[in-house]
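Q: Is it fine to ask for two folds in a single conversation?
A: Yes, each is treated on its own. Send the first.
Q: Here.
A: Result:
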Amino acid sequence: MSAAPQEVWTCLECSQSSRVAASREDRRSRILCPRCHAEISRRKPGSLSHTWALVISAGLLYVPANAYPFLNIKILAQHESSTILAGIHQLFSSGMWGVAIIIFFASILVPLLKILGLIFLLLSVQRHSQKSPRVRARLYRIIRSIGRWSMIDVFVVSLMIALVSLGQVATIEPGPGATCFGLVVVLTLIAAESFDPRSIWDEMEKQL
Protein backbone atom coordinates (compact mmCIF):
# COMPACT_ATOMS: atom_id res chain seq x y z
CA MET A 1 0.00 0.00 0.00
CA SER A 2 1.39 3.37 -1.02
CA ALA A 3 0.93 6.76 0.60
CA ALA A 4 -1.83 8.11 -1.68
CA PRO A 5 -4.63 5.65 -0.69
CA GLN A 6 -3.77 6.29 2.95
CA GLU A 7 -4.11 10.06 2.44
CA VAL A 8 -0.51 10.76 3.34
CA TRP A 9 0.55 13.98 1.62
CA THR A 10 4.05 15.37 1.24
CA CYS A 11 4.94 19.02 1.69
CA LEU A 12 6.81 20.34 -1.36
CA GLU A 13 8.66 22.89 0.77
CA CYS A 14 10.16 20.79 3.56
CA SER A 15 9.30 17.19 2.43
CA GLN A 16 7.34 16.50 5.61
CA SER A 17 4.81 13.68 5.14
CA SER A 18 1.49 14.22 6.87
CA ARG A 19 -1.66 12.14 7.18
CA VAL A 20 -4.74 14.08 6.09
CA ALA A 21 -8.17 13.02 7.24
CA ALA A 22 -10.37 11.89 4.35
CA SER A 23 -13.16 14.17 5.54
CA ARG A 24 -10.94 17.23 5.16
CA GLU A 25 -10.10 16.47 1.54
CA ASP A 26 -13.61 17.43 0.44
CA ARG A 27 -13.48 20.81 2.11
CA ARG A 28 -12.21 23.94 0.45
CA SER A 29 -10.17 25.02 3.47
CA ARG A 30 -6.41 25.12 3.14
CA ILE A 31 -4.38 22.30 4.62
CA LEU A 32 -1.06 23.40 6.06
CA CYS A 33 2.11 21.47 6.73
CA PRO A 34 2.49 20.89 10.49
CA ARG A 35 6.21 21.62 10.31
CA CYS A 36 6.71 24.63 7.98
CA HIS A 37 3.04 25.72 7.68
CA ALA A 38 3.17 25.78 3.86
CA GLU A 39 0.01 24.82 2.03
CA ILE A 40 0.00 21.16 0.97
CA SER A 41 -2.10 19.20 -1.50
CA ARG A 42 -2.38 15.64 -2.73
CA ARG A 43 -0.80 16.60 -6.07
CA LYS A 44 0.80 19.76 -7.41
CA PRO A 45 -2.10 22.15 -8.21
CA GLY A 46 -2.44 22.70 -11.96
CA SER A 47 0.58 20.55 -12.71
CA LEU A 48 -0.58 19.35 -16.14
CA SER A 49 -1.82 22.70 -17.42
CA HIS A 50 1.27 24.57 -16.21
CA THR A 51 3.61 21.98 -17.68
CA TRP A 52 1.74 21.96 -21.00
CA ALA A 53 1.99 25.76 -21.24
CA LEU A 54 5.73 25.69 -20.56
CA VAL A 55 6.42 22.81 -22.95
CA ILE A 56 4.43 24.39 -25.79
CA SER A 57 6.23 27.69 -25.27
CA ALA A 58 9.61 25.92 -25.31
CA GLY A 59 8.65 24.03 -28.47
CA LEU A 60 7.66 27.24 -30.25
CA LEU A 61 10.93 28.94 -29.25
CA TYR A 62 13.03 25.92 -30.28
CA VAL A 63 12.55 26.77 -33.99
CA PRO A 64 13.87 30.37 -33.88
CA ALA A 65 16.59 29.27 -31.45
CA ASN A 66 18.09 27.17 -34.26
CA ALA A 67 17.03 29.32 -37.23
CA TYR A 68 18.15 32.76 -36.03
CA PRO A 69 21.81 33.83 -35.57
CA PHE A 70 23.25 32.67 -32.29
CA LEU A 71 26.33 34.91 -32.46
CA ASN A 72 27.08 38.20 -34.17
CA ILE A 73 30.82 38.58 -34.72
CA LYS A 74 32.31 41.91 -35.79
CA ILE A 75 36.00 42.11 -36.75
CA LEU A 76 36.99 45.54 -38.08
CA ALA A 77 34.58 46.20 -40.97
CA GLN A 78 33.49 42.57 -41.35
CA HIS A 79 30.30 41.31 -39.84
CA GLU A 80 29.38 37.64 -39.57
CA SER A 81 26.38 35.91 -38.02
CA SER A 82 26.31 32.24 -37.13
CA THR A 83 23.51 29.89 -36.11
CA ILE A 84 24.03 26.89 -33.85
CA LEU A 85 24.04 24.46 -36.78
CA ALA A 86 26.45 26.65 -38.74
CA GLY A 87 28.78 26.78 -35.76
CA ILE A 88 28.67 23.00 -35.39
CA HIS A 89 29.43 22.62 -39.11
CA GLN A 90 32.42 24.96 -38.79
CA LEU A 91 33.74 22.96 -35.85
CA PHE A 92 33.48 19.74 -37.85
CA SER A 93 35.24 21.38 -40.80
CA SER A 94 38.03 22.58 -38.51
CA GLY A 95 38.59 19.06 -37.20
CA MET A 96 37.22 19.79 -33.73
CA TRP A 97 34.96 16.76 -33.77
CA GLY A 98 34.78 16.30 -30.03
CA VAL A 99 33.62 19.85 -29.30
CA ALA A 100 31.18 19.74 -32.25
CA ILE A 101 29.59 16.52 -30.98
CA ILE A 102 29.25 17.88 -27.43
CA ILE A 103 27.59 21.09 -28.66
CA PHE A 104 25.34 19.11 -31.03
CA PHE A 105 24.09 16.91 -28.21
CA ALA A 106 23.80 19.73 -25.66
CA SER A 107 22.27 22.33 -27.98
CA ILE A 108 20.23 20.34 -30.51
CA LEU A 109 19.37 16.89 -29.17
CA VAL A 110 19.00 17.49 -25.43
CA PRO A 111 16.43 20.33 -25.64
CA LEU A 112 14.48 18.49 -28.35
CA LEU A 113 14.47 15.20 -26.45
CA LYS A 114 13.44 16.99 -23.25
CA ILE A 115 10.47 18.58 -25.00
CA LEU A 116 9.43 15.29 -26.62
CA GLY A 117 9.94 13.39 -23.37
CA LEU A 118 7.78 15.81 -21.38
CA ILE A 119 5.07 15.66 -24.07
CA PHE A 120 5.12 11.86 -23.83
CA LEU A 121 4.77 11.97 -20.03
CA LEU A 122 1.95 14.50 -20.19
CA LEU A 123 0.03 12.49 -22.77
CA SER A 124 0.50 9.25 -20.85
CA VAL A 125 -0.93 10.85 -17.69
CA GLN A 126 -3.83 12.48 -19.51
CA ARG A 127 -4.72 9.21 -21.24
CA HIS A 128 -4.61 7.40 -17.88
CA SER A 129 -1.96 4.99 -19.13
CA GLN A 130 -1.01 2.09 -16.88
CA LYS A 131 1.91 0.92 -19.01
CA SER A 132 5.45 0.85 -17.66
CA PRO A 133 5.15 3.35 -14.79
CA ARG A 134 8.71 2.54 -13.66
CA VAL A 135 10.08 3.32 -17.12
CA ARG A 136 8.18 6.61 -17.24
CA ALA A 137 9.37 7.55 -13.76
CA ARG A 138 12.95 6.78 -14.79
CA LEU A 139 12.47 8.88 -17.93
CA TYR A 140 11.33 11.79 -15.80
CA ARG A 141 14.41 11.53 -13.58
CA ILE A 142 16.66 11.53 -16.66
CA ILE A 143 14.91 14.58 -18.12
CA ARG A 144 15.24 16.43 -14.85
CA SER A 145 18.92 15.54 -14.35
CA ILE A 146 20.27 16.33 -17.83
CA GLY A 147 18.42 19.62 -18.28
CA ARG A 148 21.16 21.81 -16.89
CA TRP A 149 23.65 20.55 -19.49
CA SER A 150 21.72 22.47 -22.13
CA MET A 151 23.19 25.64 -20.68
CA ILE A 152 26.60 24.86 -22.15
CA ASP A 153 25.99 27.08 -25.19
CA VAL A 154 24.87 30.00 -23.06
CA PHE A 155 27.99 29.57 -20.93
CA VAL A 156 30.24 29.50 -24.03
CA VAL A 157 28.64 32.69 -25.39
CA SER A 158 29.04 34.55 -22.09
CA LEU A 159 32.66 33.37 -21.85
CA MET A 160 33.47 34.49 -25.41
CA ILE A 161 31.86 37.89 -24.83
CA ALA A 162 33.95 38.35 -21.69
CA LEU A 163 37.21 37.28 -23.36
CA VAL A 164 36.79 39.05 -26.70
CA SER A 165 36.49 42.68 -25.74
CA LEU A 166 38.71 44.70 -28.06
CA GLY A 167 36.57 47.79 -28.52
CA GLN A 168 36.21 48.73 -32.17
CA VAL A 169 38.58 45.98 -33.38
CA ALA A 170 36.53 42.89 -32.52
CA THR A 171 33.28 42.31 -30.69
CA ILE A 172 31.04 39.32 -30.12
CA GLU A 173 27.38 39.83 -29.32
CA PRO A 174 24.61 37.29 -28.69
CA GLY A 175 22.03 37.08 -31.45
CA PRO A 176 18.29 36.52 -31.20
CA GLY A 177 18.92 32.77 -31.47
CA ALA A 178 20.86 32.87 -28.18
CA THR A 179 17.95 34.62 -26.45
CA CYS A 180 15.46 32.06 -27.76
CA PHE A 181 17.76 29.19 -26.83
CA GLY A 182 18.21 30.50 -23.30
CA LEU A 183 14.43 30.75 -22.94
CA VAL A 184 14.01 27.18 -24.23
CA VAL A 185 16.45 25.91 -21.60
CA VAL A 186 14.80 27.87 -18.78
CA LEU A 187 11.27 26.87 -19.82
CA THR A 188 12.14 23.16 -20.04
CA LEU A 189 13.84 23.31 -16.64
CA ILE A 190 10.76 24.91 -15.08
CA ALA A 191 8.47 22.47 -16.93
CA ALA A 192 10.36 19.49 -15.50
CA GLU A 193 9.91 20.93 -12.00
CA SER A 194 6.26 21.76 -12.64
CA PHE A 195 5.38 18.22 -13.68
CA ASP A 196 4.26 16.02 -10.79
CA PRO A 197 5.80 12.54 -11.30
CA ARG A 198 3.45 11.09 -8.69
CA SER A 199 0.63 11.43 -11.22
CA ILE A 200 2.30 8.64 -13.21
CA TRP A 201 1.21 6.20 -10.50
CA ASP A 202 -2.34 7.44 -9.98
CA GLU A 203 -3.88 4.90 -12.35
CA MET A 204 -1.99 2.12 -10.61
CA GLU A 205 -3.38 3.29 -7.27
CA LYS A 206 -6.94 2.90 -8.58
CA GLN A 207 -6.31 -0.80 -9.07
CA LEU A 208 -5.46 -1.34 -5.41
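Q: Second one now.
A: Result:
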Amino acid sequence: MPMRETEAMVLRSHPLGESDRIVTFLTRSSGKVRGVAKGARRSRRRFGSNLEPLSRVRLSYFEREGSELARIEGADLLESFYRLQEEPERGAVLACMAEVADAFAREQQEDEPYFRLLHAVLRAIRDGLDLGPGARYFEIWTLRLHGVLPPLTVCERCGGDLTARGGIYHRREGGVVCRRCVPGSTPGSVMLPKGALAAAAAILKDAPAALIGRSFAPGALGPLQGLAEALFFDLTERRFKSYEVLRALRGTSR
Protein backbone atom coordinates (compact mmCIF):
# COMPACT_ATOMS: atom_id res chain seq x y z
CA MET A 1 0.00 0.00 0.00
CA PRO A 2 1.32 3.51 -0.78
CA MET A 3 2.05 5.88 2.07
CA ARG A 4 -0.80 8.26 2.83
CA GLU A 5 -0.45 11.82 4.10
CA THR A 6 -3.10 14.01 5.67
CA GLU A 7 -3.61 16.71 8.27
CA ALA A 8 -4.74 15.22 11.58
CA MET A 9 -5.60 15.97 15.20
CA VAL A 10 -4.29 13.61 17.87
CA LEU A 11 -7.19 12.34 19.98
CA ARG A 12 -5.45 9.94 22.34
CA SER A 13 -2.52 7.59 22.70
CA HIS A 14 -1.62 4.72 24.97
CA PRO A 15 1.41 2.47 25.45
CA LEU A 16 1.98 -0.68 23.43
CA GLY A 17 4.71 -2.87 24.85
CA GLU A 18 7.88 -1.27 26.12
CA SER A 19 8.65 1.08 23.24
CA ASP A 20 5.60 1.73 21.03
CA ARG A 21 2.37 3.69 21.24
CA ILE A 22 -1.07 3.23 19.73
CA VAL A 23 -2.33 6.63 18.62
CA THR A 24 -5.82 7.64 17.50
CA PHE A 25 -6.13 10.52 15.05
CA LEU A 26 -9.02 12.48 13.58
CA THR A 27 -7.79 13.15 10.05
CA ARG A 28 -9.00 15.70 7.55
CA SER A 29 -9.28 13.24 4.65
CA SER A 30 -9.87 9.79 6.17
CA GLY A 31 -11.87 10.23 9.38
CA LYS A 32 -10.58 8.33 12.40
CA VAL A 33 -7.30 6.46 11.97
CA ARG A 34 -5.59 4.32 14.60
CA GLY A 35 -1.98 3.36 14.19
CA VAL A 36 1.19 2.12 15.84
CA ALA A 37 4.01 4.62 16.35
CA LYS A 38 7.09 2.39 16.60
CA GLY A 39 9.64 3.48 19.17
CA ALA A 40 7.55 6.45 20.32
CA ARG A 41 8.04 5.55 24.00
CA ARG A 42 11.69 4.62 23.80
CA SER A 43 13.00 7.65 21.94
CA ARG A 44 11.63 11.17 21.47
CA ARG A 45 13.84 11.90 18.46
CA ARG A 46 11.38 10.58 15.89
CA PHE A 47 8.05 11.89 17.19
CA GLY A 48 9.09 14.24 20.00
CA SER A 49 6.01 15.68 21.72
CA ASN A 50 4.02 15.64 18.48
CA LEU A 51 1.74 12.85 19.71
CA GLU A 52 0.38 14.85 22.64
CA PRO A 53 -3.45 14.94 22.67
CA LEU A 54 -5.01 17.59 20.42
CA SER A 55 -1.80 18.35 18.54
CA ARG A 56 -2.42 19.18 14.88
CA VAL A 57 0.06 17.28 12.75
CA ARG A 58 0.95 16.34 9.20
CA LEU A 59 0.42 12.58 9.47
CA SER A 60 2.18 10.03 7.26
CA TYR A 61 1.09 6.40 7.53
CA PHE A 62 0.77 3.08 5.80
CA GLU A 63 -2.45 1.06 5.99
CA ARG A 64 -1.68 -2.57 6.72
CA GLU A 65 -3.72 -5.23 4.95
CA GLY A 66 -5.79 -7.28 7.36
CA SER A 67 -5.04 -5.00 10.33
CA GLU A 68 -7.13 -2.31 11.99
CA LEU A 69 -3.93 -0.49 12.95
CA ALA A 70 -1.95 1.60 10.49
CA ARG A 71 1.83 2.02 10.70
CA ILE A 72 2.66 5.60 11.63
CA GLU A 73 5.69 6.84 9.70
CA GLY A 74 5.67 10.46 10.75
CA ALA A 75 3.69 13.14 12.57
CA ASP A 76 5.13 16.60 11.91
CA LEU A 77 3.78 19.20 14.30
CA LEU A 78 1.71 21.96 12.67
CA GLU A 79 0.02 23.46 15.73
CA SER A 80 0.11 22.68 19.44
CA PHE A 81 -2.68 23.23 21.94
CA TYR A 82 -0.65 21.83 24.81
CA ARG A 83 -0.61 25.06 26.79
CA LEU A 84 -4.41 25.07 26.88
CA GLN A 85 -4.23 21.84 28.89
CA GLU A 86 -1.77 22.97 31.57
CA GLU A 87 -4.54 24.20 33.88
CA PRO A 88 -6.39 21.15 35.30
CA GLU A 89 -9.99 22.21 34.64
CA ARG A 90 -9.25 23.43 31.14
CA GLY A 91 -7.35 20.21 30.45
CA ALA A 92 -10.30 18.14 31.70
CA VAL A 93 -12.73 20.00 29.42
CA LEU A 94 -10.49 19.43 26.41
CA ALA A 95 -10.20 15.76 27.38
CA CYS A 96 -14.00 15.58 27.20
CA MET A 97 -13.88 16.97 23.67
CA ALA A 98 -11.21 14.47 22.63
CA GLU A 99 -13.21 11.55 24.04
CA VAL A 100 -16.38 12.69 22.28
CA ALA A 101 -14.47 13.07 19.00
CA ASP A 102 -13.02 9.59 19.41
CA ALA A 103 -16.50 8.16 19.91
CA PHE A 104 -18.18 9.95 17.00
CA ALA A 105 -15.51 10.29 14.30
CA ARG A 106 -16.22 8.00 11.38
CA GLU A 107 -13.70 5.19 11.07
CA GLN A 108 -11.62 5.45 7.88
CA GLN A 109 -14.27 7.66 6.21
CA GLU A 110 -13.86 11.25 5.03
CA ASP A 111 -15.09 13.51 7.82
CA GLU A 112 -13.58 16.90 7.04
CA PRO A 113 -16.43 18.95 8.61
CA TYR A 114 -15.82 17.22 11.94
CA PHE A 115 -12.08 17.82 11.70
CA ARG A 116 -12.73 21.51 10.99
CA LEU A 117 -15.17 21.72 13.91
CA LEU A 118 -12.64 20.43 16.44
CA HIS A 119 -9.89 22.65 15.08
CA ALA A 120 -12.09 25.77 15.05
CA VAL A 121 -13.28 25.26 18.64
CA LEU A 122 -9.72 24.71 19.91
CA ARG A 123 -8.53 27.86 18.17
CA ALA A 124 -11.44 29.88 19.58
CA ILE A 125 -10.70 28.66 23.12
CA ARG A 126 -7.04 29.59 22.62
CA ASP A 127 -8.15 33.04 21.44
CA GLY A 128 -10.41 33.67 24.43
CA LEU A 129 -13.64 31.70 24.11
CA ASP A 130 -14.78 30.61 27.57
CA LEU A 131 -14.71 26.89 28.33
CA GLY A 132 -18.47 26.57 28.82
CA PRO A 133 -19.56 27.94 25.44
CA GLY A 134 -16.63 26.18 23.76
CA ALA A 135 -17.54 22.76 25.14
CA ARG A 136 -21.26 23.21 24.43
CA TYR A 137 -20.45 24.34 20.88
CA PHE A 138 -18.46 21.19 20.23
CA GLU A 139 -21.12 18.92 21.78
CA ILE A 140 -24.08 20.45 19.95
CA TRP A 141 -22.29 20.49 16.59
CA THR A 142 -21.06 16.92 17.10
CA LEU A 143 -24.69 15.87 17.33
CA ARG A 144 -25.72 18.11 14.44
CA LEU A 145 -23.00 16.93 12.05
CA HIS A 146 -23.78 13.30 12.74
CA GLY A 147 -27.51 13.77 12.19
CA VAL A 148 -28.70 12.99 15.72
CA LEU A 149 -29.52 16.41 17.18
CA PRO A 150 -33.30 16.64 17.63
CA PRO A 151 -35.12 19.81 16.49
CA LEU A 152 -34.82 22.49 19.18
CA THR A 153 -37.34 25.04 17.91
CA VAL A 154 -40.58 23.06 17.51
CA CYS A 155 -42.31 20.45 19.67
CA GLU A 156 -41.81 16.85 18.55
CA ARG A 157 -45.49 16.10 19.24
CA CYS A 158 -47.60 19.11 18.32
CA GLY A 159 -45.20 21.20 16.22
CA GLY A 160 -45.64 24.19 18.51
CA ASP A 161 -42.95 26.84 18.99
CA LEU A 162 -40.49 26.09 21.83
CA THR A 163 -38.58 29.36 21.89
CA ALA A 164 -40.93 31.33 24.14
CA ARG A 165 -41.41 28.83 26.98
CA GLY A 166 -38.70 26.23 26.55
CA GLY A 167 -39.21 22.49 26.38
CA ILE A 168 -38.20 19.09 27.68
CA TYR A 169 -35.99 16.50 26.04
CA HIS A 170 -38.16 13.37 26.31
CA ARG A 171 -35.85 10.36 26.12
CA ARG A 172 -38.53 7.79 25.35
CA GLU A 173 -39.59 9.80 22.30
CA GLY A 174 -36.05 10.89 21.43
CA GLY A 175 -37.12 14.48 20.91
CA VAL A 176 -37.88 17.81 22.55
CA VAL A 177 -41.51 18.44 23.48
CA CYS A 178 -43.34 21.48 24.83
CA ARG A 179 -44.70 21.76 28.36
CA ARG A 180 -48.26 21.56 27.14
CA CYS A 181 -47.64 18.09 25.74
CA VAL A 182 -45.59 16.96 28.76
CA PRO A 183 -46.44 19.20 31.76
CA GLY A 184 -43.85 17.66 34.12
CA SER A 185 -40.51 15.94 33.93
CA THR A 186 -40.20 12.21 33.30
CA PRO A 187 -37.35 9.90 34.37
CA GLY A 188 -34.21 10.76 32.45
CA SER A 189 -35.72 13.83 30.82
CA VAL A 190 -33.76 17.09 30.47
CA MET A 191 -35.43 20.42 31.11
CA LEU A 192 -34.51 22.98 28.46
CA PRO A 193 -35.53 26.52 29.51
CA LYS A 194 -35.86 29.18 26.85
CA GLY A 195 -32.42 30.55 27.73
CA ALA A 196 -30.86 27.18 26.91
CA LEU A 197 -32.67 27.01 23.58
CA ALA A 198 -31.58 30.58 22.79
CA ALA A 199 -27.97 29.58 23.53
CA ALA A 200 -28.32 26.55 21.27
CA ALA A 201 -29.68 28.78 18.49
CA ALA A 202 -26.64 31.07 18.78
CA ILE A 203 -24.31 28.06 18.71
CA LEU A 204 -25.97 26.67 15.61
CA LYS A 205 -25.90 30.05 13.85
CA ASP A 206 -22.40 31.43 14.50
CA ALA A 207 -18.81 30.27 14.20
CA PRO A 208 -17.10 29.54 17.53
CA ALA A 209 -14.85 32.60 17.20
CA ALA A 210 -17.98 34.78 16.99
CA LEU A 211 -18.95 33.67 20.52
CA ILE A 212 -15.79 35.09 22.13
CA GLY A 213 -16.98 37.57 24.74
CA ARG A 214 -20.63 36.63 24.20
CA SER A 215 -22.68 36.35 27.39
CA PHE A 216 -25.49 33.86 27.86
CA ALA A 217 -28.43 33.85 30.25
CA PRO A 218 -27.57 32.45 33.70
CA GLY A 219 -28.06 28.70 33.73
CA ALA A 220 -28.40 28.50 29.95
CA LEU A 221 -25.42 26.26 29.20
CA GLY A 222 -25.85 23.58 31.87
CA PRO A 223 -29.03 22.10 30.34
CA LEU A 224 -27.28 21.85 26.97
CA GLN A 225 -24.56 19.74 28.56
CA GLY A 226 -27.28 17.57 30.11
CA LEU A 227 -28.93 17.18 26.69
CA ALA A 228 -25.63 16.26 25.04
CA GLU A 229 -24.70 13.72 27.70
CA ALA A 230 -28.14 12.10 27.53
CA LEU A 231 -27.89 11.78 23.76
CA PHE A 232 -24.29 10.56 23.94
CA PHE A 233 -25.34 7.80 26.34
CA ASP A 234 -28.40 6.83 24.31
CA LEU A 235 -26.31 6.61 21.14
CA THR A 236 -23.18 4.91 22.49
CA GLU A 237 -24.61 3.10 25.55
CA ARG A 238 -21.70 4.25 27.68
CA ARG A 239 -20.79 7.17 29.87
CA PHE A 240 -17.70 9.10 28.95
CA LYS A 241 -15.08 8.85 31.70
CA SER A 242 -13.69 12.32 31.06
CA TYR A 243 -17.00 13.91 32.09
CA GLU A 244 -16.86 12.04 35.40
CA VAL A 245 -13.27 13.24 35.91
CA LEU A 246 -14.38 16.81 35.20
CA ARG A 247 -17.24 16.57 37.68
CA ALA A 248 -14.90 15.17 40.35
CA LEU A 249 -12.46 18.01 39.69
CA ARG A 250 -15.23 20.57 40.05
CA GLY A 251 -16.81 18.82 43.02
CA THR A 252 -20.17 18.56 41.29
CA SER A 253 -22.55 15.68 40.58
CA ARG A 254 -24.89 14.81 37.78
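Q: Anything structural to flag on that second result?
A: Two points. Residues 87 and 93 are 10 Å apart (CA to CA). Residues 4-80 form a domain with the OB fold (Dihydrolipoamide Acetyltransferase, E2P) fold (CATH 2.40.50.140).
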